Amino acid sequence: MKNKSLVSISDYTKEQQLHLLDVAEGFEKNPRQNLLNNYVVATLFFEPSTRTRLSFESAVSYLGGKIIGFSDTSSTSVQKGESLRDTIRTVANYSDVIVMRHPKEGAARFASEVSKVPIVNAGDGANQHPTQCLLDLYSIRKTQGTLDGLNVAFVGDLKYGRTVHSLVQALCQFNCKFHLVSPLELKLPSSVKVHIKEKKMEYMQYTELEEVIPKVDILYMTRIQKERFADPMEYEKIKNSFILKNEMLQKTKSNMKILHPLPRVNEIDEDVDDNKRAYYFQQALNGVYVRQALLTLILGLK
Ligand code: CP
Q1: Catalytic-role residue among 51, 162, 277, 291
Q2: Strands (E), 138-273
Q3: What is the distance in A from the centroid of ligand 1 to the CA of 182?
């Protein structure tokens, strides 16, 4: 993994992904280690973020490294018309690794082709979010004790949800059964379903949430993403399709956990937060350890 960009979750083998989770476990036990002393990590966020950017910056800070970058482009030369190619080639002169979020699908792959330092994709449009995927895998393994043979429900925006696309692809390595709950307009794209079919795994599609709750080990909720809709009326029609409430969690498997990449809008009622099945804030914390593991492996320090 040394010097290797992470653009899609499939850029790393199953063995590399599992090794990274093992390294992350070490950071969970001891997150403050001076491994990144004298290293510079650039975080270039062309699209809003709270968790991904700040957990990367927290990960670097706990490891004694330095951060440069921007959280929006308004104060950068992007406003003067600078191309992505030129921005990346410039920032690659100033840093050892670049973490980038961009609204366009394929932007991270392009950046990895023009950069002399590794690129970590922190989300490219509706395409992929591989570091979220790794922290999701970490959270699932930690709560279930395994990644194999699980029943996993994905709920909400399966069409534009980049976290869903990456995680479905990753779980196809582990013989899982997929329960896909979405409005008809936001079904999982065939370009992602093909991974399930290739591995001859089972998937079922639903338009009601209640049906899947008793069946699953992991209930992976997602937000209907207003920013992905060209027509605001289309968003208004389906924005409240699924709202998980505490009263709906009477009959679940005892090991069941609720995950969400966050941010949430109203798809999980706040009354669920104190339920023992709610794991989404711990999931966000796990992002620090997983990103510490990723950066130290890419830089050849682990
Ligand atoms: N999960 C996630 O990507 O959250 P942010 O958009 O806040 O980074």
Answers
A1: 51
A2: 151-155, 177-181, 203-206, 218-221, 257-259
A3: 20
Asked if 121 and 8 count as a contact pair (C-beta separation under 8 A), the reply is yes
Residue 227 has a pLDDT of 87
For residue 266, what is the domain's CATH number?
Answer: 3.40.50.1370
Specify whether 98 is located in the same domain as 145.
no
Range of the domain at 70: 9-128+286-298
- Distance, CA 280 to ligand 1 centroid (Å)? 12
Phi, then psi, of 206 in degrees rounded to 5: -135, 160
Among 127, 125, 97, residue whose Cα is nearest residue 112: 97
| Residue from 53, 102, 129, 179 carrying the catalytic annotation | 129
CA of 164 to the centre of ligand 1 (A): 13
> Can you give the pLDDT at residue 4?
96
pLDDT at 62 (0 to 100): 98
Q: Which amino acid is at 110?
A: F
Q: Are 278 and 18 in contact (CB under 8 A)?
A: no
What pLDDT was estimated at residue 52? 98
Please check whether residue 2 lies inside any domain of the structure.
Answer: no
Q: How many domains does the chain fold into?
A: 2
Regions of the chain where pLDDT drops below 50: none
95 lines ligand 1 (CB under 6 A): no
The reply to whether 114 and 243 lie within a common domain is: no
In angstroms, the Cα distances linking 40 to 49, 91, 92 are: 20, 11, 10
Q: How far is CA 74 from CA 39, 46, 80, in A?
A: 26, 9, 10
